[in-house]
Structures are given as C-alpha cells and as structure tokens.
Amino acid sequence: MFLQTKTKKDMSKIEQLSEIMDSISASRDIRELLQASLNKTLKALSSERGSIFMAGEDGEELSLKCANDNNDLKMDQIRRKLGEGVVGKVAKEKRSLLVKDIRQDRTLTISNMHHDYRTTSFLCVPILAGMKLIGVISITENNTGKPYSEEDLKFLEIVAGSIGLKIEKSKLLCEVEKIKKKAETDGKFTELGKFSSGISHELNNPLDGVVRYVNLALNTIEEGPARGYLMEAKSGLIRIVNIVRSLLELSRRNKNSNLKMADVNETMEHSIELAMNCATHKTVDIKKDLHKDLPMIPDMGLESIFSNILKNAVDALGATGSIEVKTARNNGFIEISIRDTGCGMPQEHINRIFEPFFTTKEMSKGVGLGLAICDDIVKRYNGRIQVSSQMDKGTAFVIQLPLKDNA
Ligand SMILES: Nc1ncnc2c1ncn2[C@@H]1O[C@H](COP(=O)(O)OP(=O)(O)O)[C@@H](O)[C@H]1O
Ligand SMILES: [Mg+2]
Which of 30, 43, 64, 248 fits as disulfide partner to 78, beta carbons 3.0 to 4.6 Å? Predict the structure, then answer.
C-alpha cells in the first residue's frame, strides 16, 4: 500500500517535471521561460516563494529577474554580488544548497544570510551551462510544513539544468544568426569585388565615350523635347558612371600589392579638398584638429575612407553647416573622427549603412557603396569603425586603426 502511494507520488513528480521541461522548451523569451519554470516548480514543490537571479555579463553580480512576490519595478534593482548572501554564495561556489533548518545550520555563518528567506528551510541551486554560471534559483516556504528533502533538491537541480541549457542554446542561436547575417553581407561583398574587377574595366571605356557624346550633343542642341530627353539620358549615365567608379575602386583595392605608406593628416587634407569640390551651393565650416605627431601607416585606401565619409557628411548638411575632423593617437590606435551637423539618421538606417547598395539618396547622388567600401578597408587594417547619429542634430563616424598591425 505504502509502496503504491510512493510510486504514485513519484509518477506525478515525473509528470510535473516533464511539464516544466515542455514549458521551458516552448517559451519564446527569457522572461517567459523564467516565470513559467518558477511558477511550475513552486507548484511541484508545494512552495510559496521563489526567485531567480541572473548573472550579469561580467559574472561578478547577479540581479533579480523573476520572483513570485515582487513587483516588476523593483526587479532589476535587487542585486547580489558574488559571495554575498545565500544567492551570492551558491553562485560563487556553483554548488547547490539544501538547508533543512537555518537555525541548526553551522555552514551558513554569515549573520544576515537568512534575510532572503522567511522560513527555516530552503533550496538554492545554481543555474549552469557546463561550468558557466547563468543564474541562481531559490525556493522557500514549504507548504507541507516539513523541511525540503534530497529529492526536492534533485528535482530543482534538474529544472535548473534545463533552464541553463535552454538559455545558453538561445544565446548561441542568436550568435549564429548574427554570424550568418554578417557572412551573407561579407559574401555579397567578396563576390562583388570579383565581379567588379572584370566588368568595370569593360564598361569604363565605352561609358566615357557615351558621356562625351551626350555632352557634345547637349552643347549643340537647341531647347526642345529632344534636349529634355538627352538631359534625362545624362542623369541616368551619371548614375552608371558612379557605380562603375565605385566598382573600379573596389577592384583596385583587391590588388593589394606594393603598398605605399601614407600620412594620415595629409590624406585627410586632400580628402577634404575633394569633398569640398562636391559642396557647391553649400556653406560648410570645416573645423580641423589634427594631431601633429602621427606615424605613417600603410595605404590600404585611406583616402577612400575619408572622402566617402566626408562626401556623405556634405550630403547630409543643409545649405549651411559644419564638419569637424579630428585625428589623434589613442592607446595604440590612430583615431580619426568626422562629425557633421547634418540631418542625422534613424536607427533602422544606422543598422544598414554598411551594407553594399544601401542608399537613401536619389539616383544621381548615391549608389550605396561608399560605406561598404570604408568598412572593408577598415577591416583590412584590423580596425574599427563606429557611428553615432541623432536625427536633425548630426552624425559622427569614429575610426580606429591599430598601430600594432599597421605602423
Ligand atoms: N553623415 C551622414 N548623415 C546622414 N546619413 C548618412 C551619413 N552617412 C551615411 N548616411 C546614410 O548612409 C547611406 C549609405 O551611405 P553610402 O554607403 O556612402 O552610400 P551613398 O552615399 O551612395 O548613399 C546614405 O544613403 C545615407 O542614408
Ligand atoms: Mg556615400
């Protein structure tokens, strides 16, 4: 009779466990996952209170992410340092804790430890993925009035194990998605490089001829519909010329032989001149703050980086505005920043500006390769390019080129 009851009890525990596993694998985000597992575990262990703390990025501090008796507002502000309180101790040692009666427990000598709990028995288990700490789950206030058992602890450890695995798995999936997306963009770019080197040379000469003849025709033709058609044709041609030029630039850089050394400031001065040639009908105030003592670095396309960013800055300005250019030496990097007081851009554009062919400009102005080229060149330097932008305020590009690899 007794055996039968025990088996029944075990069965219902297994069922409860499998229900928790199901809800863990079905949940769509971490908060939902934590809440569902906590609620179901409390029910399975006939307990009133519980909480889940999650470890931060540095693994030094945990913050409360889920509790059945706290309102959401306080949630993230409740923190435990590694080693602090019961939760911090379990996190630090990565070892589960079953306390049957806190009053009798000699191992928990820290006086304020039982603050986290109202009753004398509790369970506290680390959530791990392998040996990596993800968080800590605690359960207390056993409704049965009895202390928790070894079986209860095992149960909670199994739940914690699956939470850990699921969280680690979703983090990995997220990384894989990011890498996939990046590989797609990079792949598109490499293909583009190969393709462009073949085709752009073929296109360049005949295109020059066509542009010349259209210009000649425009010089000789009288006002009238035919002139209008030619003007249309010319604006289409300018776009094609721009694309071919960008593609040529790309293919030239792919042949990376006999690199020359470049002076960053001189290249910047020259790029500013080039960009200002495009700034007709605009009053642009250029502010320069160029570091006097920068080492020379190999030229892998510095001028392309600077002029593409400067041309974009000019395009972003209205009739008047300023562009601030700064070069500096900073912790083993040459740092170049270019800021404009132009139109700025929304986050959804910022996310895409380095994609080849992403442009918001009209046909004759942009083909969307400028920043893709910049990004590619900066990568060759093993450098970084960062952008920050505020709508109607302006945009800043900061480029860091490591001296270790390049000086
Ligand atoms: N300084 C800037 N201010 C506002 N938007 C910018 C700036 N620089 C780049 N952008 C945005 O990024 C897009 C991509 O730039 P880019 O790759 O140079 O291509 P393109 O200039 O041919 O459009 C631009 O069309 C524009 O929307
Ligand atoms: Mg551009």
Answer: 64
